[in-house]
Amino acid sequence: MIKQHHIQSLATLQLVAILTVVIGHYAVTDNAFLNSVGVSFCFVYSGFFTALRHEFGPSYGLRDHLGFLRGKLARFYPLHVLALLLCALSYYLLDFRVPTKLLNAKVLLAHLTLTSPWFATPSYYFGLNAVAWFLCDLFFLYLAAPWMVRGLRLLRPFWQVCLVVLLAALQLAGGYADVFTPYQLYQFPPMRLLDFGTGVVLCNVSRTDRWQELARQLTPRRATVVEVAALVVSLLLYPLCEKYLHGHCYRAYCASAPIVTVMLGTMVLTVDGNGVISRMLRRNPLAALSDLGAEMYLLQLATFFLLERHLARWGVTQYHMVHLLLQLALLLAVSWLVHRLYTAPLARRLTKPVCSPGNDCGKGTP
User: Fold this and answer.
1) pLDDT tens digits, 236-259
2) Which has fewest Cβ within 10 Å: 35, 176, 288, 351?
3) Distance between CA atoms of 23 and 7, rounded to whole angstroms?
4) How far is CA 86 from CA 82, 227, 270, 334, in A?
5) How far apart are CA 87 and CA 314, in angstroms?
């Protein structure tokens, strides 16, 4: 069973995935497949920890679900609004020539209501803060989480895995056959049910007696061998999937699921064995930054716009390594300040229990 201090390894791995996406957005690497691996990993990770931390038992009702959504919104929605505001200010203050269709009341309303990816129009899911579609998709998945988790648990772990493999095969085949458009594969919220459900199934499988017994048999040396083997498999899957994209980069969006499942599944299996990679992720300086993942993802475009115009005056092009390092340094600093002074205090305040005569907020409880 995963222990609390082992969760740090997985959280750090998610931060690495977010950094992969951020670096890809800065156009240092023109690789849609690598970006899609990072995005898919974040959805799988969210499904895994949602199922790990919430039982969604038979007594789970509407009031419980509203409380669950309130906690999620308290963490992400204030940051989402701030990111939208910073992007809008950047467009106007830096005199970026943005089409009017990307900055209007309808697009703003769609973003504020977390419905922008439901419109199959780039001006909606790419307007204002272009990366905010991820948060909108994630909120939809949180809405569906209780029914998905409870429905999957009605099946035996073996049939859960078979269902995920079948759906992944159908989605992959549809991507290769040009059945789906890039929007349908990437931004459309229901298509992300597969990634989220994969995380839920992985959590359910990790709770079985057979999986836990296998994890207990892994010594640190054996855990290291398993982690290295999974890394090799992932590196082999990467060029294999990319080779058969046939020039259609959006097929990468559905081809990344195997790599994501291998990475996260191996980490779940070996965290109790304390393999080398698990220990590195837990003790690495990145571990101290794992709480900044949401800020770094949603604020990346705002910080990009702040430096873009000034760096161009100094002759630093967008594809220059100096440009990347400066962008990451600014993004890290802004994310830390926003998390420390805005999102974390506000989240604690919004999720604080309401005290009443029947609820003493835990006072006097040992």
Assistant:
1) 877 777 666 655 556 666 677 777
2) 288
3) 25
4) 6, 40, 41, 12
5) 23
